[in-house]
Amino acid sequence: MSFSGTTGIAIFMNSRSRSKIGNLTRESSMSKTYYIYILASKKNGTLYIGVTNNLERRVYEHKNGLIKGFTEKYSIHILVHFEETQDIYSAIQREKLLKSWNRKWKTDLIEKENLLWRDLSEDWIG
Length: 126
Prior knowledge:
4 helices, alpha+beta
């Protein structure tokens, strides 16, 4: 499995991984794609990091206030970064890692591929 950012750059892991979580052993499959994404309220605004298996649907839900809570309260709906992987466990680990990063690291990650904080979903959703 690999993670890739908006330009498709592999970040880590291999195409097939086996790992042990607690007492369970799992083997990843290539059947699904999972996305780790960052939304922003505006350039250098409030950030939200999440995971989904359908990025287009999830961004639509955020943009249309269908998800109650933090993103709705703070008008966070601009997709500024996303990565993809075929392994849900690695996606969740990556989400947790990004959430633990300081603000500077997060903004550097966004600006590495999206300097102007353009909404990466603007062509998908009407």
